[in-house]
User: What shape does this take?
Amino acid sequence: MASDWETLAANKTLSPHLGLREATSAIFGQTPLEKKSDVCWEWSPFAASVVMHSVAIAIWYLTQGQQVCHSAIRNSKERHDASQIAAALSRCRDLLAGVADAHTGTAGTWNEAESPLLFNAFAILRVSYGRAFIRFHSLDRSLLFKESSQVMLSILRRYFEAVQDRDPFMTMAVSCALEGFAIPIRAGILLMRKTAAFKWSVEHALASWDAGLLVTKWLYAVECSHRTNESVTPEEKQVLDSVRQLLNEVESHRSEQSSLAAELARMWASIYDDTWVWGVAPRIGWVLRELANMYETGIVAV
Assistant: This one.
């Protein structure tokens, strides 16, 4: 039996090595994936997780460079870059889905050894969607480290009042980020409040922070447009319906006049400031609750 395994292993064709730079380049379409299908679509969960971190870093630097030159970039150039990033993230999603399928057990679940890596990789994918399409020049990211609550509120107020972009790319990013909200809700929101801090890695705290900013502000902008009878696309309406469904699953007691963005922000804050390990978590919870208050006040004035 052992000799049979050794013979099979010796006869197995080994895939050529693929470095991190080449893998990241392939994700961004600079190296055609079709020529490397045996390499690019048979990665281990660890390799996929590492590449997702590399992609997230690349997107961060790319978008930061764009925002520094924001006034000098033409809309056509922005659309081209957004299309390229969207295509790269779509490849990442396909890659992670393929890796997940390859490591799914007979019961339809990921095996215990690989599931944390895959779980974290999907979280980083959601971070990447948020970083790719949210305009962080309107938010001072250092507000979480400010000592004065008044300073934090001033920074948050500027972010709240900033104009929210709405386009197909933003809708796609919000739809992806919303998946992160669905995970704890469908797993049991009360259980997640008590256990997520001990089981989830710091990637999930960061992913949830970015998702909270991205989804709630976009949701508030769409709500305002809907209430003033401005145009809302079918795709945007579909996301609104998904949010309502998620809030119904947690039995949110809200009136028709209340803000969906505010309800979602408060629900999300409860995961941060209930049971926590990372010191920044309760600050994130506080910020989300204050942002929810702004959404609630703003929607009443519409």
About this structure: The chain has a mean pLDDT of 78. The CA atoms of residues 265 and 288 lie 6 Å apart. DSSP finds twelve helices and no strands in the chain. Residues 168-199 form the longest helix (32 residues).
